[in-house]
Amino acid sequence: MQHQEKALTQLYAGVAKSTVDSSSQILTHIKIPLSKKSEGSNYQRMEQRKALALPMLSVVAKVVIDNNLITEASIVYGPVSPGPKHAEEAEKFLCGKKAEDKNFLEAGKIASQHATFRSSPVRGSQEFRSQVFPVCITRALREASKIATGKKA
Fold this sequence. Notes:
The chain is of the alpha+beta class. The chain has a single domain, classed as CO dehydrogenase flavoprotein, C-terminal domain (Enolase-like, domain 1), CATH 3.30.390. Helices cover 28% and strands 23% of the residues. It has helices at residues 88-94, 101-112, 126-149; strands at residues 12-14, 17-18, 39-46, 57-66, 69-78, 85-86. The strands form two sheets. Strands 3-4-5-6 form a four-stranded antiparallel beta sheet. Strands 1-2 form a two-stranded antiparallel sheet. A hairpin with a 2-residue loop joins strand 1 (12-14) and strand 2. Helix 1 packs antiparallel against helix 2. The longest helix is centred in the last third of the chain and has 24 residues, at 126-149. The radius of gyration is 17 Å and the shape is globular.
C-alpha cells in the first residue's frame, strides 16, 4: 500500500475530472490546519435553489490581519473558470491594505477581470454571475476579516 500526499489543488484534472484513479486509489483523509489567532476564513455560495447541488458561484476567502492591515490573503473561486482558481492579482492587491469594504469590493472587481463567465441554464446567465461575483468576494472577505479580528461574524 502506497501513501501519497497531495495538495487539494493537485486533485483537479479538468471539468468533471480528478487526478485520483478510482480503480486503484482512494482518498482517505484531508488535513486542514487550525486557524491562527489573527486569521479568518469564510465560504460564500450562491445557488438558484436548494434542490440543485451545483452552485452558480462559490468563493472562499482567507485573511491574516495585523493592526487592521491585511498581511496575507487567499481567494479561491469557482465555477467561473475551467476549474477552481486563485484570484492572485486580487490577493496581491489586498496585502498591506486596510480590512474594509472598499478594498474588498476592489479585490472582487480585480478578480472579475480574470474570471471566465459564461451563461448556463443550470448556473445562470453570464451577465448576472459577473455582476454578483464581486459581491460574493466582498462578503467572504468581510466575514473572514471579522473572524480574524475577533469581531462577531
